[in-house]
Amino acid sequence: MPRSPVRKLVNLVVTIPAYNEEKTIRAVIESVPQKIEGISSIRVLVVDDGSTDHTVSEAIAAKATVISNSVNRGLAFTFTRALEKALEMGADIVVNTDADNQYDQSQIPRLIQPILEGRADMVLGSRFRGNIEHMPLSKRWGNRLASHILSWNTGIPITDGQTGFRAFNQEAALRLNILSNFTYTQETIIDAADKRLRIAEVPCDFRKRADQSRLFNGILDYALRAAHTVVMGNLKLRPIATFGTIGAVFLILGIISGIPVLESFLVTGRIGEAFLMRAIISGVLFIIGVEVAALGLIAALIKQNRQLLEKQITEVRRQSLKMKGQVHV
Hints:
- By secondary structure, the protein is α/β, with parallel strands linked by helices.
- It contains 10 helices and 7 strands.
- Helix 5 (about 135-155) packs parallel to helix 8 (about 220-235).
- The radius of gyration is 25 Å and the shape is elongated.
- About 35% of the residues are buried.
């Protein structure tokens, strides 16, 4: 008789960064599906970011694996630590979700389906393609604007770049590097695009939060921090184009400003007092333009060195996990 095909084991780790979420963390953990078609094992990992309430005890009572930061280190650090620990736990797929119970964990099978089918390395749960129970208008438009900017920067159609409900295959989890000290949401997309990882979106539902978010102080604070992340990401993705465009603007302004000066010089053979200040401004603008364009070339060289270094870091991670028997793909 022919042998039946050996079923590939696929391990899922659901990570939950948490900071003072004692009221909701247990409900989040207990709502994670216990069985998913195509998945061999499901484990929940809570990374406590220095909580001062009963978040840890509630998570342990719900039978999750818990690790803690000694002090509050922020969401980006905690998310990165969660990815690293999930890989150590043998994750083939990592699902990240929020501890505030705004996402519906029963939709995890939908979230990971593109990865199981081999169509994506990273999947975003889009609130704007699903149902939103409540979101303030300012936050709604802020999220949409940031997502449009991300789509323009990366060339990938994205409707919700700020969602905390997302999934990664093992390769994506190994290769992503987060440098932001604020949030991981935009930077993971930018980094994935830079590494040419496949990104997909699926609809997800979003519930009303019981209290206010503690991640940022108002929409303006969030917008400034997110804008900084996106700008830095754009410099990371295409340094020559970015610096070249900025440099070209200064060069054009310098040329426009200098045209009357040149006309005066061609007619009179000298630069009169009336054009002296314009000549200085034109020269300064022109010099700035050249220097900024030169920075683009330097940044491009730095990008090449960074890419080589990241390849080495990824390989070190891969070899470390192989030695522990945790690399399955």
